[in-house]
Input
Amino acid sequence: MPQLKKKWERSANLDETEPLPKEAKCEKLEEKETPAGMEGSSGRGQTSKKPSSTKKRSGTQVNPESYSHWLLKSEPESRLENGVDMKFSIEDLKAQPNQTACWDGVRNYQARNFLRAMRIGQKAFFYHSNCKEPGIAGIVKIVKEAYVDHTQFEKSNPHYDASSSQEKPKWSMVDVQFVRQLRRFIPLAELKVYFWEHQAAEGALKNMTLFTRQRLSVQPLTKEEYEFVLSVEDKKPNSV
Output
């Protein structure tokens, strides 16, 4: 598969510019885990340890492997970092051979652990981030489970990590394949309205990670969250 010049963890995390709940503002690469909480070897094929046990989600302990749906952020607009264009939109994915690409460049421990929890066939929303109008553009599926992200070893790559070694690589990636674009783009602003409504009424999006831990570039979704978002793609934007 050709190397793709894209994304993100240090930049696409900064896309939510509208006011958010107070707890959402503490996600500044908070996953600086202590060595004991970090995985000690490669992603896929790692047998000695699994991703750090559980994380809190709005006060509830959750296991990353309990999720079967995801949200992946990428930048749809050109932005140079160390001379590399980080742009990778859903249209760019569609243009790849077999409409498939590696999801590389994640440099956040919790986001990495979510990548490692993904399984072949699971669906994810492709989210346009760090742009004029962020939001959900389409759906992809996981076609290859977590394996070593080669970009961590490439000194010319914006995601090079000098502290990672071939013997004990820190970072993983997965392969995703385009499934379809949503029948309409669902912007962050619209999702936020649902989020506030659902917080008050105990709705499906009441704990959505996009708002409670919004800086993560790889996020888990419950089945209810995923299905609710799909249910609104045929609604008119002004019907919110």
The mean pLDDT is 80. The helical segments are 90-94, 109-117, 188-201, 209-212, 223-231. Residues 69-233 form a domain with the ph1033 like fold fold (CATH 3.10.590.10). Residues 188-201 form the longest helix (14 residues).
